[in-house]
Design goal:
The chain is an alpha/beta fold. The chain has 2 domains: 132 residues, Nucleotidyltransferase, domain 5; 118 residues, Nucleotidyltransferase, domain 5 (2-Layer Sandwich), CATH 3.30.420. Helix content is 42%, strand content 26%. The strands form 3 sheets. The chain has a 5-stranded mixed beta sheet with strand order 3-2-1-6-7, sandwiched between helices. Strands 10-9-8-11-12 form a 5-stranded mixed beta sheet, sandwiched between helices. It is globular. The chain starts with a helix and ends with a helix.
Length: 261
């Protein structure tokens, strides 16, 4: 998995040499919209993103803004790759009502992409991670999704509010910054602000505990871009008392998992 993610990270807005993209995914996130591509052997071939605040807590709150963001990604990808993107998969947080999930489908459709699959983000993440026994955690900007797997089967799936945006709020209040500047500070100087964010990370850990019913699920696998902070996995492991596995480039797990789905 680490090799796949390291390989993927090198292909931001660049097509991997010798790989023809054939399978695409679009991740409509709270802070970023991401387009990913795999070749016919399932290897990462390309990815791109735009920052956008068109989704809140898994709900598309700016439909036209979301469509414009996806169109931008589609246009850039087609120009770089020299192909036409006709279809892609997308995803939604586990707890989002079906009516709101369909909005994700319509965003792709309006942007000129047929939605071939609509899955929840935890299932998408595990399409890449392939966890058979344990918990897959997708920590996004607005919420934290938890899926528990037993013998490769999903036995529980839930989602609760609270994620990277809440960490931004903590940092903005502590340092008297705008939300936007706080997000940049967290992303670019995480080591300098980690102590300020520890209570927020522990709240995310408590959300994980509650969603697992207070019972150790096995190893907890952290996906999503909200916890790209030094030692965040250690804070969560100490709080829970459970084994926790973090991944370099964890922000790419769900987007590429969507393409796999």
């Amino acid at each position: 998995m680490e090799g796949f993610l390291a390989d993927a990270s090198r292909h931001l807005r660049v097509c991997a040499e010798g790989r023809t993209p054939v399978r695409f995914g679009v991740d409509l996130g709270t802070a970023t919209i991401v387009l990913t591509a795999l070749d016919d052997e399932g290897r990462p071939a390309y990815w791109d993103f735009v920052r956008a605040t068109v989704v809140r807590d898994g709900v598309v709150v700016d439909f036209q803004g979301a469509v414009d963001a996806v169109r931008t990604l589609k246009s850039r990808a087609e120009a770089t790759l020299g192909i036409t993107i006709d279809e892609a998969a997308t995803a939604h947080p586990p707890a989002v009502p079906a009516s709101d999930c369909r909005a994700c489908h319509f965003v792709l459709q309006q942007a000129g992409i047929e939605c071939r699959a609509l899955v929840d983000e935890v299932t998408a993440a595990n399409a890449l991670l392939q966890v058979r026994d344990g918990a897959v955690i997708d920590v996004g900007g607005g919420s934290t999704g938890v899926g528990v797997f037993r013998s490769g089967e999903l036995v529980s799936l839930s989602d609760q509010a609270g994620g990277g945006h809440q960490l931004d709020l903590i940092l903005a209040g502590a340092l008297k910054l705008s939300i936007e500047d706080a997000e940049v500070r967290k992303r670019e100087h995480g080591a300098d602000v980690a102590s300020l964010l520890r209570p927020g990370i522990e709240r995310i850990a408590e959300s994980i505990r509650r969603q697992c019913g207070g019972t150790p699920p096995g190893t907890v696998h952290l996906a999503g871009g909200a916890l790209r902070l030094p030692q965040a996995d250690t804070v969560i492991a100490r709080y829970l008392g459970w084994p926790v596995r973090a991944y370099d480039h964890a922000e790419l797990i769900t987007p590429f998992g969507i393409a796999v789905s």
